[in-house]
Amino acid sequence: MASIKYIIGKRGGDRPEVTLRLTISNALKVQTKVPGVLVYRQYWSEAKQCNDTTRKFAKPWEVEEMAEVNKTLAALAAEVLSLATATPEEYITKEWLAAEVDNVLHPDKYETKEAAPQTLMQAVNSFIEGSRTRIVQHTGKPVVKSTQYQYVQMKNHLASYMRRNKLADIDLAEVNKDFYDSFVAYLYEQGFKLNTIGKHIKNIKAAINALPLAQRATCEFVEPKKCVTLAEEVDNIYLTEAELETIASLPIATPYLDRVRDQFILLAWTGCRYSDLGKLNKGNIVTINGHEYFKIEQQKTGAKPTIPILPATRAVLEKYNYNVPRPLANQKFNEFIKEVAKLAGLTDEVTITRTEMADAPSKGRRTKREAQRVAQRYEKWQCVSAHTARRSFATNMYKRDFPTLMIMKITGHQTEKAFLTYIKVTEDENAERMMKLFEEQEAARQSTNK
After folding, report:
1. Which of 28, 80, 387, 410 has the fewest CB within 10 Å, making it most exposed?
2. How far apart are CA 152 and CA 128, in angstroms?
3. pTM (global) more than 0.85
């Protein structure tokens, strides 16, 4: 979660300037000076992050000035946090922060009469064009192709929405809460799940926030409290080690299904994303103290994990003489791995709860539809995808009692909050795990007391 902290410099005597530090994650921290805003060093409260106007011996005019400065700092922190929440991480740089601080403190500088507000599609087109050369700050690399593709998908859905509503385009001043509600309802009607809708909303916000302040100042869509970025935790499945072993040992006569099965096993015992599957080859193997590891650079984050080559992984590598076949398109892989899971007999019933458009009680004759949490039942094989492998790795290592931070070093997760969404342990499994650990600790304690 993003946070703001003000830091008092050593220079400036009794009236120093402050530095604003914005923290997005452990890997992304940026800061800039707050020019022209001076505080009283002797009255500064680190805990309150402002001048303490209740201190004794403060003169009346000092108290009055401190109150005004405190008001400015509080408003600045709130505005920067709001902007950071609605801005993709690749945009958040020292230069971005300095510009936004200046925008908040000196809005008149950016109110240029000649800067006519852009339309929504103009903003989106400009954003997509810029993404082709934009450098992501915390990776130092261009925006990856998969992210650029998400931007294009967002544009296509906007264009479809406008055609249906017979709109050529929309002025940014009209991209408001009513548009937000209408567009979200449209995406639900198209069959999209809430998290997918949330990604499109987030990307539209990013496109608008990339504009100069004067052009987006009247756009209600980027206000986080009015138009929230939707997200929910979904009951995704994982495969146990026993289920992975069943898949790994399954005789498969069809060559393409055999290859897909082996690639799934590689992902399930390395924790890699599908976008990094092609890097699990001989050229990325290193030897450390007699043991072999994959050393790769993740496409999505730029992280460079060192991944142990476990027995199940080695069996697949040796089968192909360490030259694993080239990955299929992700959509095709997901289609084929379901066939493999069905052949493996993964037919247990699972319940998946998501937010979808569903019929709601209505007094009139017309059926009313609205977004609701809907529980649907599936056979387990129907829910298996490439990402199930990564989720299975995280969960199975967690159940083996490996420390969370150790697993995160392999998966490349930057925050424990993001990592824990991958852990799919039921209430019963969690209780059993706790009982097992307690019994082991109790046995060790009694052994020590003898």
Report:
1. 387
2. 7
3. no
